[in-house]
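Hi C.,

You asked whether I'd gotten around to modeling the 221-residue construct. I have! Everything is below, sequence then structure, no commentary in between.
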Amino acid sequence: MEGFLERFLRFPLEQIPLIAVVLLIAFTVHEFAHAFTAYKMGDTTAKDQGRLTLNPIQHLDPIGTLLIFIFGFGWARPVPVNRRNFRNPRLGGILVSLMGPISNFILAIIGTGIFYVLVATGVEGSLHPLVIQFLKLFVYFNVLLFVFNLIPLPPLDGYRIVEDLVSPSVRVKMTQYEQYGTLIFLILVITPLGKYTIYPIIYNGVPFIMQSIQRFFSIFF
């Protein structure tokens, strides 16, 4: 049974519980960051629907979570946002979309910082290997979500940022074809076409960001 399951999983079976906890934290903080930023910019929609919370049950998407175990990345439930309530709709839209990925980047920095402190203080050697493995997965998946969500394809945050950067007339046209963009995105994710489009961004972007964070901490440790 174990061998059968591993045929369909992107990661080793023994890592699944650790990854599940990491995703619980990463997805929850990501969506909370969207909701909190929207609230601060004047839109209470997410708060009114119970999404301004760190309760993971309110944020997890079953399909998006399952896909990350199979393909290596996925998504949570999108936070509802009414940009018309923003004091500055364009700026508000950009900040709300951007703060989700930024929150994962901050978590990755925190995770890396904790790892370097543990190593520098000599505590790392006395800890259970699962703790170190958890920290490494924590950093990896948060960097992955940071890079992945900035890809400018619907329904990702990168696409929403582009939507608010372009002119209103272009935004209207983008909205008209958005459903096709979402379909294209799903095709790229689940077919070999991803090897020539999305995957190179992931495979090159994630190591680059992780190494950059590590180089930063190596200055102090």
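If it helps when you're writing up: Confidence is low (pLDDT under 50) at residues 1-8.

Thanks,
B.
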